[in-house]
Structure formats: C-alpha cells, structure tokens
Amino acid sequence: MSRERLLTTIEANRGVAEASPSPFYAALLERMAQDVRDGGPTWELLAPHADEPASEYFPFRALAGVHHEVLAGERPELARHFPSTGGDGDADAAWPGVRAAFAGHDPDVLREMPHALQTNETSRCGALIGGFCTVAATTGLPLRVLELGASGGLNLHFDRYRYEQGGLALGPADSPIRFTDYWEGGTPPLDAPLEVAERRGCDLHPLDVTTEHGRIALLSYVWPDEARRFEQLGDAIRVAREAPVVVERASADEWIAAQLAGGPAEGRATVVYHSLFWPYPPQPVRDAIAGTIEDAALGATAAAPLAWLRYEPSADASSDVELRLTQWPGGEDRLLGIGGFHEHPVRWLG
Ligand SMILES: C[S@@+](CC[C@H](N)C(=O)[O-])C[C@H]1O[C@@H](n2cnc3c(N)ncnc32)[C@H](O)[C@@H]1O
Questions:
Q1: Within 6 Å (CB) of ligand 1, which residues are found?
Q2: pLDDT in tens, 1-11
Q3: Is the pTM of the predicted complex or chain greater than 0.85?
C-alpha cells in the first residue's frame, strides 16, 4: 500500500519536473520509480515518508541532497552529468551515481529530508516592485520593509535590481538582475521616489547565503537543467553578499508582533510583505499575523503609514498569483497585478 502511494508521489513529482521543464529530473524520477518497484535504495530511503502527501516533495528533497553534493564538488562522477556543473544532462549515465548516493544514506541527502524545499525566487521581485513603488508614490516616504518567510533574504534586495519598461527605469543600471518589459497591460510607477531606509526579514529556516553551505543549499533546490533560474540565483546571491541582511530565525507571527510592537514608524512607510509564503504556516499562525497587522493599522497615520503587500496564490487555487496591497490609514485593499509562480509576465491592474 505504502509502496503504491510512494509511486504515485514520484509520478506526481515527475509531472512537476516535466512541466518546469526539467527533463533531467523527470528522467531521474522515472529511474527512482523503477528502483522503488525493485525494492532498491530509493525505496529504503523514501519508505519512511511513503505516506506523506506528494506536495511535501520527498523525492525532490532526496534529489536536492544529491545535487548539494554535486555542487559542493564531492561527486565528480555526477558533475559530469549534472547540467548545473556543466555536465551533459545524461540522466541514464547519472543514475548509478544517484542511486549510490541514496544507497549510502549520505549525510547530505539525509540532511535535506526533514525540511521542505526552500526556494528563494528572485523573479518575484519583478511583481513585488509594483507594490513597493505604489507605496513610495502614494506616501512619499522612505520604506521600512519587513519580509515574512524570507528564506535566503534575496528578495529583501529588490531595490538593488534593475527594472525597465515604457521609458521608465529603476535600480542600478549595472545590476545583474534585470526585469525588462516584465509587465503587460501597463507599467507600475517605476518613477516613484523609492528609497529603502530599513530592511529586515524572518524565516523558520533561514539560509545564510554569505556562507558556502547556505549558497550551495539554495542553489541545490533549483532543478539542475533550469539554466536561466540557476544563473539568476547565482547573480542574486552575489548581490546579497555585497550588503548582507540577516534573516532572523523566527516564526513569522511572533516576529511580526515584535517588529510592530511600537506601531508603524514615524517618517517611514512600513511595508509588511511576503511572496509564496502564505500557504505554508498553519491557520492559527496566519490568523495571528493578520491580527497583528490589523492592530498596528489602528495606529497608522499619514506620517506613519502601514502597508501589507502580498504576492500569493489566488484563493480559487488557479495557477494565478495575485499581487495585493492594503494600505493604512484608510485600509484600502487593491489587486495590483496577476502573475505566475516563477518567471512570468505580470498583468498590471494598478
Ligand atoms: C516557498 S518559500 C518562499 C520564499 C520566498 N518568500 C520567495 O518567494 O522566494 C516559503 C518560505 O516560508 C518559510 N516559512 C514557512 N512557515 C513559516 C513561518 N511560520 N514563519 C516564517 N517562515 C516560514 C519557509 O521556511 C520558506 O523559506
């Protein structure tokens, strides 16, 4: 029964890889499924998690562990085949080495098993910037930005990236992270006086990209053959290392309560924001976060405004991701844009 469930999970994960597209991982997942049928090392490694839902991505966690070792230079025989290390992308040739890593119950593989895959997707700044610019334009104040579920903190550097559209431009002209004509149907106010006075973030499992382990861990979650995402993530890590921001280890409900304890800051526009974070915490944590923000909003004034910016999946569970902004005083809630989970054009509705 458990074995059948695991095979269904592997097949679901394979579908995700195929759609991404990651033909390399899709092919490895096929080998993993056969190995589970044969009772091989993949079965031994994943059997304790066989009844977990497919959305926990245990097969991908196992592959991320192997990918970590490949990126760290510990498996040269696999580096020859992993596209992320310049390999030939031959999954058949890679499979014996991947199977051996599973068979050895390697510490790096096992280290990835207990916690969820932790991507930090810089492309979401292409959407979030529409909200930050709207707050800057409507308040005229420097921003105090507070990110929930910040992972490696890469999206706390959104103003160090370059945005260009419709004759407008924002951010350093030589930034390696660039969003050109990212929006459809209009352009966010990229000419707003955007200044970040303070930036902070929290995560249950923060990754410190200033360390080699943190850098490799974050890269290991990206599919090895998604060359553009891989390159962009590497560039974003370099930008983050130039001006490191510590992502605090904390649950977002407790952390935001502490950040907003004194109410919104005078002379700054406080922006609480998150992207692809909301589905993860349990309902009581989400309720506590919403309650804290609503309480703090009672103290918001024109000189100490508060905003809640979200880039999160729509409630109807379609593949749309909505950019929403609520601003106080006033409490007006606006749907500013609609985009996707990864790099994608965003429709501007603001
Ligand atoms: C899918 S990742 C998104 C990361 C980042 N926001 C992005 O868009 O790239 C979700 C993040 O939420 C974090 N997370 C989940 N529950 C949390 C909680 N209760 N408090 C803080 N962070 C949490 C996870 O550790 C993970 O880093």
A1: 118-121, 124, 149, 151, 155, 202-205, 251-252, 274-277, 280-281, 285
A2: 789 999 999 99
A3: yes
